[in-house]
């Protein structure tokens, strides 16, 4: 049973406050969790409670959320069974009483939810991935390394937010990490050679001032080859242009960081199609904006049988929105971010709904992170087959990849690396 729940304000990877929670059970088992935070957030995400007091951290303090953890939530959960995750999460939803967790804050609720799961796993003597996923959990995800950062994650001329490499041809997770790191370093030397800077953005990817959005893919392909690997067979490309950030009230997409041109939905779909025809792209996330549901339907009809179309801002890990997407033929894959919905139980529901509909799902970090590695275990627990948690650079990104190395080592011969299979599309 839960004995204490204690929250505190810590800083995340961008130097902004976030919530950390410690949960202690009566048998002495302790769980700790840190809450991530996005920059290009979806409009329908659960509410991250911030103090708004401009005298502290520019209004970004989380003392109210911490107080909610230490008073309302701590009082209500004391004595509850730590192993009953659903009852605990439901109790917090009830205390909050809103659709979007605006009373207590999704940051407060999620921190407690994850810390409870950790403490309960320890009490049961199980690693977290087995506690959440059962004794048979053994699938290591293909990592999507975000090695060029643009959009809201970097001060550069690139409109699209994330250019990722996926070592689909690696035999093991360990080898996929090596391939990812080797391409990363090869890319760095290519950027330098071309006279670009190699400073990194929020997720550890390089943030050069490229001449065009497409050039990011060209330099990445050169990096893959320089590392002695084959584009496509060994290392595929995944994109998250995060186009909700580009969407304008008139229904167009504004390339505000490069040439200020405007594109219609149809033109955006044409860009993706032409890129898919030229490059080994296995996944496109938020290829259209969260506000452009009809565009999403057209994009899915046109490209959905050929490529993974992931809803991030479009779905916000929300089971109700995912159900609507499935019914409306929007996308074919769900991005899973624990803090978009704000509890472990609802995250697992979003995953099982996606899976039941034949949607793939990618477990994801946020651009603001802590060293918390919960999502590494979550990806193995749910056999997601794919994870994105930044470049192989910056401690808060490596925390997740390194945890996957440990899990693979612990599983030994039982471990299986998802690789290509994670992205195979049903033949239609
Ligand atoms: P965010 O970006 O964490 O800043 O929202 C990540 C993403 O868009 O996938
Ligand atoms: Zn995204």
From TrEMBL:
<keyword id="KW-0670">Pyruvate</keyword>
<dbReference type="InterPro" id="IPR020810">
    <property type="entry name" value="Enolase_C"/>
</dbReference>
<feature type="active site" description="Proton donor">
    <location>
        <position position="203"/>
    </location>
</feature>
<feature type="active site" description="Proton acceptor">
    <location>
        <position position="337"/>
    </location>
</feature>
<dbReference type="GO" id="GO:0000015">
    <property type="term" value="C:phosphopyruvate hydratase complex"/>
</dbReference>
<dbReference type="GO" id="GO:0004634">
    <property type="term" value="F:phosphopyruvate hydratase activity"/>
</dbReference>
<comment type="pathway">
    <text>Carbohydrate degradation; glycolysis; pyruvate from D-glyceraldehyde 3-phosphate: step 4/5.</text>
</comment>
<feature type="binding site">
    <location>
        <position position="161"/>
    </location>
    <ligand>
        <name>(2R)-2-phosphoglycerate</name>
    </ligand>
</feature>
<feature type="binding site">
    <location>
        <position position="312"/>
    </location>
    <ligand>
        <name>Mg(2+)</name>
    </ligand>
</feature>
<feature type="binding site">
    <location>
        <position position="312"/>
    </location>
    <ligand>
        <name>substrate</name>
    </ligand>
</feature>
<keyword id="KW-0479">Metal-binding</keyword>
<dbReference type="InterPro" id="IPR020811">
    <property type="entry name" value="Enolase_N"/>
</dbReference>
<dbReference type="GO" id="GO:0000287">
    <property type="term" value="F:magnesium ion binding"/>
</dbReference>
<feature type="domain" description="Enolase C-terminal TIM barrel">
    <location>
        <begin position="137"/>
        <end position="425"/>
    </location>
</feature>
<feature type="binding site">
    <location>
        <position position="388"/>
    </location>
    <ligand>
        <name>(2R)-2-phosphoglycerate</name>
    </ligand>
</feature>
<dbReference type="Pfam" id="PF03952">
    <property type="entry name" value="Enolase_N"/>
</dbReference>
<keyword id="KW-0963">Cytoplasm</keyword>
<dbReference type="GO" id="GO:0006096">
    <property type="term" value="P:glycolytic process"/>
</dbReference>
<keyword id="KW-0324">Glycolysis</keyword>
<dbReference type="Pfam" id="PF00113">
    <property type="entry name" value="Enolase_C"/>
</dbReference>
<dbReference type="InterPro" id="IPR029017">
    <property type="entry name" value="Enolase-like_N"/>
</dbReference>
<feature type="binding site">
    <location>
        <position position="285"/>
    </location>
    <ligand>
        <name>substrate</name>
    </ligand>
</feature>
<feature type="binding site">
    <location>
        <position position="153"/>
    </location>
    <ligand>
        <name>substrate</name>
    </ligand>
</feature>
<dbReference type="InterPro" id="IPR020809">
    <property type="entry name" value="Enolase_CS"/>
</dbReference>
<feature type="binding site">
    <location>
        <position position="162"/>
    </location>
    <ligand>
        <name>substrate</name>
    </ligand>
</feature>
<dbReference type="GO" id="GO:0009986">
    <property type="term" value="C:cell surface"/>
</dbReference>
<feature type="binding site">
    <location>
        <position position="285"/>
    </location>
    <ligand>
        <name>Mg(2+)</name>
    </ligand>
</feature>
<protein>
    <recommendedName>
        <fullName>Enolase</fullName>
        <ecNumber>4.2.1.11</ecNumber>
    </recommendedName>
</protein>
<comment type="function">
    <text>Catalyzes the reversible conversion of 2-phosphoglycerate (2-PG) into phosphoenolpyruvate (PEP). It is essential for the degradation of carbohydrates via glycolysis.</text>
</comment>
<feature type="binding site">
    <location>
        <begin position="364"/>
        <end position="367"/>
    </location>
    <ligand>
        <name>substrate</name>
    </ligand>
</feature>
<dbReference type="InterPro" id="IPR000941">
    <property type="entry name" value="Enolase"/>
</dbReference>
<dbReference type="GO" id="GO:0005576">
    <property type="term" value="C:extracellular region"/>
</dbReference>
<comment type="similarity">
    <text>Belongs to the enolase family.</text>
</comment>
<feature type="binding site">
    <location>
        <position position="388"/>
    </location>
    <ligand>
        <name>substrate</name>
    </ligand>
</feature>
<feature type="binding site">
    <location>
        <position position="366"/>
    </location>
    <ligand>
        <name>(2R)-2-phosphoglycerate</name>
    </ligand>
</feature>
<keyword id="KW-0964">Secreted</keyword>
<feature type="binding site">
    <location>
        <position position="367"/>
    </location>
    <ligand>
        <name>(2R)-2-phosphoglycerate</name>
    </ligand>
</feature>
<feature type="binding site">
    <location>
        <position position="337"/>
    </location>
    <ligand>
        <name>(2R)-2-phosphoglycerate</name>
    </ligand>
</feature>
<keyword id="KW-0460">Magnesium</keyword>
<keyword id="KW-0456">Lyase</keyword>
<dbReference type="InterPro" id="IPR036849">
    <property type="entry name" value="Enolase-like_C_sf"/>
</dbReference>
<feature type="domain" description="Enolase N-terminal">
    <location>
        <begin position="2"/>
        <end position="132"/>
    </location>
</feature>
């Amino acid at each position: 049973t839960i004995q204490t729940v204690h929250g505190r304000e810590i800083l995340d990877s961008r130097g902004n406050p976030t919530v950390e929670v410690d949960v202690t059970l009566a048998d002495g088992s302790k769980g700790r969790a840190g809450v991530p935070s996005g920059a290009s957030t979806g409009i329908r995400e659960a509410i991250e409670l911030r103090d708004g007091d401009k005298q502290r951290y520019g209004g970004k303090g989380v003392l109210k959320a911490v107080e909610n953890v230490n008073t309302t939530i701590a009082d209500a959960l004391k004595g509850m069974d730590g192993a009953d995750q659903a009852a605990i999460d439901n109790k917090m939803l009830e205390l909050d009483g809103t659709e979007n967790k605006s009373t207590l804050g999704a940051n407060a609720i999620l921190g407690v939810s994850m810390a409870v799961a950790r403490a309960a796993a320890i009490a049961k003597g199980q690693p977290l991935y087995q506690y959440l996923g059962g004794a048979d959990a053994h699938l290591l995800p293909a990592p999507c390394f975000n090695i060029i950062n643009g959009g809201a994650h970097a001060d550069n001329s690139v409109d699209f937010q994330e250019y990722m490499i996926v070592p689909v041809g690696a035999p093991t997770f360990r080898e996929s990490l090596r391939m990812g790191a080797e391409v990363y370093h090869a890319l760095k030397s290519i950027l330098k050679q071309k006279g670009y800077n190699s400073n990194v953005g929020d997720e550890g990817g390089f943030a050069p001032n490229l001449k065009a959005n497409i050039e990011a893919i060209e330099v990445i392909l050169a990096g893959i080859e320089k590392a002695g690997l084959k584009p496509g067979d060994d290392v595929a490309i995944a994109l998250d242009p995060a186009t909700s950030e580009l969407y304008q009230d008139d229904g167009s997409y504004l390339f505000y960081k490069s040439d200020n041109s405007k594109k219609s939905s149809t033109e955006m779909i044409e860009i993706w199609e032409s890129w898919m025809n030229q490059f080994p792209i296995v996944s496109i996330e938020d290829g259209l904006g969260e506000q452009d549901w009809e565009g999403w339907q057209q994009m899915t009809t046109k490209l959905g049988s050929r490529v993974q179309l992931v809803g991030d801002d479009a779905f916000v890990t929300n089971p109700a929105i995912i159900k609507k997407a499935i019914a409306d033929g929007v996308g074919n894959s769900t991005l899973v971010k624990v803090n978009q919905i704000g509890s472990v139980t609802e995250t697992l529901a979003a995953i099982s709904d996606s899976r039941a509909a034949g949607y793939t799902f990618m477990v994801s970090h946020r651009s603001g992170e802590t060293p918390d590695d919960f999502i590494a275990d979550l990806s193995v627990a749910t056999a997601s087959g794919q994870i994105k948690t930044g470049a192989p650079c910056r401690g808060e990104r490596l925390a997740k990849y390194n945890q996957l190395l440990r899990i693979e080592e612990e599983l030994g011969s039982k471990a299986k690396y998802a690789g290509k299979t994670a992205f195979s599309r049903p033949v239609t």
